[in-house]
Structure formats: structure tokens, C-alpha cells
Design goal:
Rossmann fold; alpha/beta; single chain; about 250 residues; globular
Length: about 250
């Protein structure tokens, strides 16, 4: 049976760990040629090498989405290797330690918006420029359940992830005339290195987090990557401007 993403050429940002690294595995398993980018590629090296040894079309390159021109550079590299860009998973992000808004320093807010918001904006701009001439393509931006609700102590992170949803909705309208779809993935608590650190700074830690999830467990990165694969595939062909919440029911409680 043909894979969900067979023949697709896909860019993944924030690919060195967590959901981004899982996406390299899931997307390539579903038949895509995938280029991952991250500021530090070393954490992903062993996984990527194993995927390549298994016959997958996967690579990872060092790039920083906060630097002008970097996304354009890697898109050119990807298209030279595999052909026109079909899809992108804009997953690069950072989180924050939980701290009350009146105690948070301005530098934290600036850094979160530089990576989570401006980084996503830079990716969208470069990807749409590559996709528009062929009048097709799919983009998925990683937001969060923090993009659809608030959390104590996470004001800057929540604000940045709300902004990603705003970018997604506007980009979906801008790109619709060219047949390009843009959606957001909103993961709930997922067992990634970034989330593990954040949970330890929340009141009650991991146990308190679990109590808020009806399915009573934390998501695995692969589960979020599977949801992103669906959004990137033909099976979601009439879905655009949406925010897919994958959180084990946490936001309906």
C-alpha cells in the first residue's frame, strides 16, 4: 500500500529532537523525501543515520530560522536534491520556565517571539514563495494547546503560540487562491525534552499535568507527528486555516 506522503518533498524545522525528530521518521516512513533543519543537528545524528541505513530519504542540516535567508537556503538545497517543495512542517520553537507574568523578564518574551513567531513567519514567507508558482503545497505550523487557552506562569509562551494560530489563519487566506493549504497542529503535553523541563517548573509538576488529561497519559512525539502527516496529506485536502488539537482531551475538561 502506498504511503500517506508518497512522492512528497517535505521540510521539517526544529528537527533535532521531540516532535520534529519523530516527524523525520513518520514522514519518511510514509514515503516522503524529508530534510530536517535545526540549530544543533548532533542530537539527531544517530536517528537520521539509522533511517538512511534503512533506505529512507532523510537528511538533516544545520540552520537557524531566526536568521534571514536561512530558510530560503535550505529550501533551495532540498529542491536541488529532490525536486519542488510539496510540504513543510514548521516546528521550531522554544518554551519557558513557569513564572508569573509580573516576575518575568522582558528578554524571555523577546526570545520566545523571535523564535516561535518571527521564525514561523520567516518559514511561511519562504515556503509560500516556493509553492505559489506551482499553485500547490501544504504547510503545518506547530502551535500548542497553549495557543487556544491560558496556563499559569506561561504568559509569554501562550502569547507566542496564540500568535502562531493567527499567522496560520491569515496565511491560509492569503494562500487559498493558489490552492495552498495552511493549518496548525496544537499538541497537548508531549514527552519531549523541552516539555519535560517545562513540566518540572509547573505547580505540581508532572502529576498535576496528568490529572488534567482525560486519557491519563502524556502524548508521545510520534503521535503528534502522525497528526501532522495527516494534515500534510491528501486525506485532509479540504482542511485549511484550522488548528488541530491533539491533547488527550485536556482542553475539553
Amino acid at each position: 500500500m502506498e504511503g500517506l506522503l508518497a512522492g512528497r518533498v517535505i521540510l521539517v524545522t526544529g528537527a533535532s529532537s521531540g516532535i520534529g525528530l519523530a516527524a523525520l521518521d513518520v514522514f519518511s516512513r510514509e514515503g516522503a523525501a524529508v530534510l530536517g533543519i535545526a540549530r544543533r543537528t548532533e542530537p539527531a545524528a544517530a536517528t537520521v543515520a539509522a533511517l538512511v541505513a534503512a533506505g529512507r530519504r532523510v537528511a538533516i542540516e544545520s540552520a537557524d530560522v531566526t536568521r534571514p535567508g536561512e530558510v530560503e537556503r535550505v529550501i533551495t538545497l532540498l529542491e536541488t536534491r529532490h525536486g519542488p517543495l510539496d510540504g513543510a512542517f514548521n516546528n521550531a520553537a522554544m518554551t519557558q520556565d513557569a513564572v508569573a507574568i509580573d516576575l518575568m523578564d522582558e528578554a524571555t518574551l523577546d526570545q520566545l517571539f523571535e523564535i516561535n513567531v518571527k521564525g514561523t513567519w520567516r518559514c511561511l514567507r519562504a515556503e509560500l514563495k516556493a509553492m505559489r508558482p506551482r499553485r500547490k503545497g501544504v504547510i503545518v505550523n506547530t502551535s500548542s494547546i497553549a495557543g487556544v487557552r491560558g496556563f499559569p506562569g506561561l504568559s509569554a509562551y501562550c502569547a507566542s503560540k496564540h500568535a502562531v494560530i493567527g499567522l496560520t489563519r491569515s496565511a491560509a487566506l492569503d494562500a487559498a487562491e493558489d490552492g495552498i493549504r495552511v493549518n496548525a497542529l496544537c499538541p497537548g503535553t508531549t514527552r519531549t525534552p523541552m516539555m519535560e523541563r517545562q513540566m518540572q517548573t509547573r505547580p505540581g509538576g508532572e502529576q498535576a499535568t496528568l490529572q488534567r488529561i482525560p486519557l491519563a497519559r502524556i502524548s508521545e512525539s510520534e503521535e503528534q507527528a502522525e497528526a501532522a502527516a495527516w494534515l500534510l496529506s491528501w486525506r485532509s485536502s479540504f482542511v485549511t486555516g484550522e488548528s488541530l488539537v491533539v491533547d488527550g482531551g485536556a482542553t475539553i475538561r
